[in-house]
Fold this sequence. Notes:
Low-confidence stretches: none
Strand content: 5-15%
Radius of gyration: 23 Å
Amino acid sequence: MNNPEALWDRIVSHIQPAERAIVEQAYLLAQQFHADQYRFTNGYEPRPAYIVHPLRVALLLVEEWKEQAPDVIATALLHDVFQGVLLTEREEAEAMIRSKMGAQVFEAIHLLTKPHLPTDYATDIKYDRDARYFKVLFEAKKWVRLIKCADRADNLRDSCHWHDIGFWERYSNDTIGWHLYLARNTSALAEVALFKALIDGERLFHGRAPLWADGRFVNPSAAAQIPERIVRVLGVIGLAMKGDTLVVGVRRRSTLYNQERIKEVLLNAPNATYETLELVGLSDDAIFEAIDARLYGE
Length: 298
């Protein structure tokens, strides 16, 4: 995944020879703009060249989502070029891309480039910037939105590959807030890919499916004690620790006929450290109240 030559060979193998010129030109420019730039790898050495990221984004589009139009692949390869350019050199860089790649690719790269933030900024400034940025993206062509989704999918996968929890926390939070909604309104494939990447990361870094994954709410201390397969077989929708008590949430309609079985299985779970078990029949309102009370964590 970090070998530029191997990634490039795979991309080219999916493009007809007559359509390769624009893609090859894009790759040359991407190499030029990303020269001497590296991916952050949480202390791992050697650090891969930054060019592997746009190559992987292009490959994801080509192989997984079957988006093989030359302009799409060219834009994917160049989607980050303006992000790393000094503001004093931006005008020259834009003129070069426009002249060599044409107006359509240039405009797409421009749409995909987030405006720079000041060195010191408040949270609301970043939120306002992101809100404006995604409002414009929502109105962009589908293929431009797909590139943004592929970009985020690769970043999430990369943070898992390098076990970089700081990178993961920042990017997963943004993804839930912005990118997942963008994907939902763009492509089922993109939505599934982002959703899977989010769940894979939550399992890797936190040992559980994310709270929003399938309607079940499980806090970390409870998740460490109860095998997930047991939770799913029993139909449990909530687990949380309250002192030495395991609080188990079930839909109210299942409480009457399943509670004894639930108690029997959970009280005999192999890793259990709780002393008592409390079974609670939850309505939808009760679930939201439990979340508001932070019973399942922040």
